[in-house]
Design brief:
Length: 267
């Protein structure tokens, strides 16, 4: 493994972490690691075994399951544009997620997973297992299972990982930490629009329900005992309420280049 520039991005739901981390990764030739996808994959694994993430009775079975499940994430840069859309915009990098060899990329985004994830995220044994995996990725360690791989490509100059505890717990020595925020209402509007775009029946999506779910998840993330969502002391606070995705990504890239220059790191 080689020394990679480590960028940690944390913040609450819909603060723009994953879309801007992907854009920054593509432009900077960094690898992208979606730590939330790993918590989602464990939640799916538990539900598939009929274990209840929200029940304390199942907690020890679930931590065992996390330790024995093969979770692979792999980001594809410059994916071909989606057929039957005439958009000339370049597609964002896509993260494929595999659970024990199964492609669960889409399954882990379901509302059922989001509803149950707090039980997984507050399980200390699950966190220990996933944090170890996340650190290995960030240090450029290859991990193969057949053709499924957690890769850091030879050409990568760094890694960007987004989540809730990346700057505080996973990568406390990251070269740059950014904590992104926006008021809950603004983040709920973003999620609402996103849900409307991906839904065939737009009238079924209720803004107040989206806001309520988002505030509930914020509360769980900020208040849990283990690895709560928290700005690291040395993280840069970025309020994104008035920023577009592109402006937010540009700002992050600017901060990375500035920090690399200060540290004499050639990107
Ligand atoms: O994109 P969104 O904010 O909806 O979700 P995500 O990043 O996929 O994370 C889903 C959930 O996983 C969060 O609400 C956290 O409870 C948990 N998570 C965590 O505990 N620690 C991380 N490093 C990343 C996610
Ligand atoms: O990863 P996280 O949950 O923090 O957020 P995201 O998935 O990157 O962004 C959630 C939604 O908000 C996406 O539809 C983004 O396009 C949108 N967004 C926005 O409109 N303006 C921003 N400054 C950031 C994100
Ligand atoms: O691993 P190797 O150095 O042989 O090449 P690669 O990383 O597979 O690069 C293949 C393509 O992916 C190149 O065109 C790179 O520009 C692109 N790439 C990227 O966009 N982002 C990365 N983090 C890594 C590679």
């Amino acid at each position: 493994s080689k020394n990679l520039f480590q960028l940690a991005i944390d913040g609450p739901a819909a603060s723009g972490k994953s879309s801007t981390a992907r854009i920054a990764a593509q432009r900077l030739k960094f690898e992208y690691i979606d730590s939330g996808a790993m918590y989602r994959a464990v939640t799916l694994a538990a539900l598939r075994q009929n274990l209840s993430p929200l029940s304390l009775d199942d907690a020890s079975k679930i931590s065992q399951l996390a330790a024995t499940s093969h979770i692979f994430i792999h980001t594809i840069f410059n994916p071909p544009p989606i057929a039957h859309t005439s958009s000339s915009k370049p597609s964002l990098p896509q993260t494929l997620v595999y659970l024990n060899g199964d492609d669960v990329t889409h399954d882990i985004r379901s509302p059922e997973i989001t509803k149950n994830i707090s039980g997984i995220a507050s399980n200390p044994d699950v966190r220990r297992v996933l944090v170890e995996k996340q650190r290995a990725f960030a240090n450029g360690i290859y991990d193969y299972e057949g053709d499924k791989l957690n890769t850091i490509r030879k050409s990568s100059k760094g890694v960007v990982m987004d989540g809730r505890d990346v700057g505080t717990v996973v990568l406390p020595n990251a070269d740059l930490k950014i904590f992104v925020t926006a008021p809950a209402r603004i983040r709920a509007i973003r999620r609402f629009k996103e849900l409307q775009q991906s839904s065939t029946n737009k009238s079924l999506i209720d803004f107040n329900k989206v806001l309520e779910d988002l505030e509930k998840r914020d509360k769980n993330d900020y208040e849990r005992k283990i690895s709560p969502l928290k700005k690291a002391d040395d993280a840069i606070l970025l309020d994104t309420r008035d920023m577009s995705v592109m402006e937010q990504a540009d700002k992050i890239i600017e901060l990375v280049l500035e920090r690399a220059k200060e540290k004499n790191i050639d990107l």
